[in-house]
Amino acid sequence: MAENFSFSKTRIDEHTIKVGVDIRPVIEPKLDRVKLFDVGQKLVDKYPNLFESLVQSPTEFLIRKKFVFPGKGEVDLPTLAITPRGVVFIFPQRLSLFQEEIQLNNIDDVSLDGLKIFRGSFAGKMFCRVGLVNEYIFDTGQIESTELVCSRFTKVKVPQNGEIVLNINRPDDDYNKKIQLKPVQKIERDPNIPGVDQVSSYGVQVVVDFNNRDMSNDLDENHILGILHKGKQYNNNELYDFLNGSFGEV
Predict the structure, then answer these.
(1) Coil, strand or helix: which one is 24?
(2) pLDDT digits (tens, 9 = 90+) for 60-107
(3) How many CB atoms lie within 10 A of CB 158?
(4) Is residue 236 classed exposed, middle or buried when 0-12, 13-18 and 19+ CB atoms within 10 A define those classes?
(5) Which of 189, 187, 184, 197 has its CA nearest to residue 144?
(6) Are 40 and 135 in contact (CB under 8 A)?
(7) How far apart are CA 30 and CA 190, in angstroms?
(8) What is the rounded CA–CA span in Å between residue 228 and residue 200?
(9) pTM, whole model, 2 decimals?
């Protein structure tokens, strides 16, 4: 069964898109707290459907948003984070918990506008790398996903209850195309035995980080948009060729 499994967009059970930007010199939450608060407030005012609550301390800066699904529940998620590398915009797309798609503003527009706001408060910073990161979980149903990953992508035999995580970079001259593959399980309570969990289905977590290789230049809007566009193309097309067994150069 595993050899016949086909990865497709209809198999996506959970999906988050991130736009990460490496910034030099680095942003330091403790020293730059006033500027970060100013940036955060501007983002909250302009995009309230994505940015809501500022979380600030000497060691971190986050913006969070509570997403409400009428009749199903709600979830509070980070939508922007400052990391040691720079800034990450986080766009939840599909949540497995509620089986819901989240409709948000155009990702390119929000990212470019957000970076423009950052440049306004952090003059002299260099944006040297932009990464489009897609985090998927593909539902494989009752097909055991560890066996699927091992048989399709390796010659390794993993014993029952074993684990495997694959990290692959398939770069070309201009871009890194990093792919991480990890088998996962969906766990639910056994309705017949209180306190006992059972595997209801299997899946494969796929994380795709598409970013520029050359970090020597300060990227302007056109370069950033070009990276995001190429990354989107890769995720929509070549990624599925790779996942479904076409291992030639794409």
Answers:
(1) strand
(2) 999 999 999 988 899 999 999 999 999 999 999 999 888 888 988 899
(3) 15
(4) exposed
(5) 184
(6) no
(7) 47
(8) 36
(9) 0.93
